[in-house]
Amino acid sequence: SNLETLIQRLPKAELHLHIEGSLEPQLMWDLAQKHHVELPFSDVDAIKSAYQFDNLQSFLDLYYQGADVLRDEDDFFQLMWAYLCKCHEQNVLHAEIMFDPQTHTERGVSYDVFMPGFIKAIEKARDELGISVYLILSFLRHLSEESAIETLEKARPYYEHIKAVGLDSSELGNPPSKFERVFAQAKALGFKLVAHAGEEGPPEYIWEALHLLKVDRIDHGVRSIEDPELMAYLKQHQVPLTVCPLSNLKLCVIDQMSEHNILQLMNDGLRVTVNADDPSYFGGYLNENFMALAEHVNMQASDLITLVQNGFKASFLPEKTKQDWL
Ligand code: HPA
Ligand code: ZN
Fold first, then answer.
1. Assigned superfamily of 2-315
2. Residue 56, pLDDT score
3. Is 255 annotated as a binding residue?
4. Half-sphere exposure of residue 12, counting CA atoms within 13 Å on the CB side?
5. Where are the domains of the chain?
6. 216 is in an annotated binding site
7. Is 146 a catalytic residue?
8. How far is the C-alpha of 19 from the C-alpha of 75, rounded, in Å?
9. Which residue out of 199, 204, 288, 319 is catalytically annotated?
10. How does pLDDT run across 274-311, given as a tens digit for each residue?
11. 278 CA: nearest ligand 1 atom
């Protein structure tokens, strides 16, 4: 269709992508064989069929289990390189990519294993594919703030490779207020700030992310719609929301794609972007997320163009570089 051609053709930015969530079943299988890790699956197809979720937690349980096959530097290189090749295929020219250090350090895999793997793939993609990448160090919110502080400190040798810090994992019961001190430390170090809020959690968590953590963007934020005052604030300050349509469907945040509120958020004047979140687990990379919207909500070509432009506007690229894409 025309919209499909347009989506494929437009240069795009990806702002909400967990690199561990881009681990494809085939690579998971191959790495499990390589390291003699036992997976509770009989073959690659059995991994794929297990990807049916009731909520965020049921997904996270599989996501952390899957990440356990990542053991040495080359595994992390392969993971990042596979994702960046996908970016090239889909005409994604800038990606701001989250990684979860604690998912690895908690299993005895250190920064000196995953960071060199990531950095080598990122440099290769910059040189050979012309893709720019920023890394976002994301804290696991089901763990303590002390653990987050230690995670930020251990990253010190790699600060020059990290653009921002974020907050992900189990939202309900782990409000942003739990991480006020570590976000203040990260801000003092010069990092940009993002946090998942208002995916499963209430609008109050979005207010906390804004006022207590002082984030530059909200990841997801689809529950903003429940709070008119919050909507007004997000509009006035043009705080970006990194919305992930296929994720919302797979994690039962919505029952059907046709019920997604993204057009309403956009038509109310918010700076909304479209993103893939965990593409291997949710059934699509960035273009498939745009396509799902084109098929199931009443999107015009002009809406798609606005959403794609918002991706660059909401990025952490320098203003001059952004202008080149708008
Ligand atoms: N939400 C919270 N935590 C996550 C997600 C998500 O969508 N993906 C990976 N970790
Ligand atoms: Zn996410």
1. Metal-dependent hydrolases (3.20.20.140)
2. 97
3. no
4. 30
5. 2-315
6. no
7. no
8. 12
9. 199
10. 999 999 999 999 999 999 999 999 899 999 999 999 99
11. 8
